[in-house]
Amino acid sequence: DFRIANFGKGDVYFCNVNFGDGYVNFDEAKFLGKGFVSFKEAEFGDGDIRFCKAKFGKGAVKFNCAQFGDGHVEFSHAKFGNGHVEFKGAKFGNGTLNFEHCEFKGYVSFQSMTDSKTLSKFSLRHSSFDKSLDISDNTFNCIPDLTNTKLTNQVSLDRMEISDNYPPKGDFDKSDGERLCRLKELAETNKSYQQALDFHVIEMQANRERLPSEFYKKLDYAFYKIAIYGQSITLPLKNLGYLTLLFTYIYASMSIVQHTPGHWFDWIDRFFIGLLYSLSQVFPFVSAGRN
């Protein structure tokens, strides 16, 4: 238990330290001065890890390649000085990562975190960033929460994705739409328009439950399945092709019932007549099948 501990103004090294399983508490701890604070490659076992209201000085704070077991990792209301804050390559177990109401004076990086899919929550809500924020090269099984954040410089979301398995239980959280709207806004600011469209698709899915009736919900679901909310060109064309072939079969069958073909080439002829008629219903400029 390091609660309210004062580590002075020098460097603080917990590199490669194995904390074992259990609760680790650094609440309201003070790392002052220009000292370097390093938890690089430290190993935290299963259990909650808390740095709530901790204060860091002007030196860098690094958790690069640190390993966290199952449990909640809490940094809420922590204050970081001008040094870099890095969690590059950090590995997390099943749990949450909470940086709500934090103050960051320097560059912040959560780039390439290992097993970020195991996090059920990653929140930076209500935090302020005086320099750039990097969350690139991650795949999350939750919606990162950057709502109500104060961002002075660019936020890097390159190659940051939401897992295809989200939501794991099939139901979106009621706040997911708001979180996705914020991510979409940041992607548009970065001119990452394809990423913004991807976030928009998930946002539309999350907001489906807010629609006023089952009819609108089913209509919205059909739009998603048929064209992925207008994103896909090949999927509607493929469905149109299947539908054209279906009606080709129907029209050819109706013709065969009325007039049984005498030869095998008559069967082929009826199929092509059915195809031509089907195409004429789909494409107005195909007029031959109407005659």
Report what the structure shows:
With 291 residues, this protein is an alpha/beta fold. It has three domains: 166 residues; 62 residues, no CATH class; 56 residues, no CATH class. Helix content is 30%, strand content 19%. The chain is built from five helices and 23 strands. The model has no long low-confidence stretch (mean pLDDT 86).
Summarize this structure briefly.
With 291 residues, the chain is α/β, with parallel strands linked by helices. It is 30% helix and 19% strand.
Distance between the termini: 87 Å
The SS-based structural class is alpha/beta
Q: Provide the gyration radius in Å.
A: 28 Å
Average of pLDDT? 86
Order of strands across the main sheet:
1-5-9-13-16-19-22
Q: Helix share of residues?
A: 25-40%
Main beta-sheet annotation? 7 strands, parallel
Quaternary state of the chains: single chain
Taking pLDDT < 50 over at least 5 consecutive residues as the criterion, the unreliable ranges are none
Number of strands: 23
Number of domains: 3
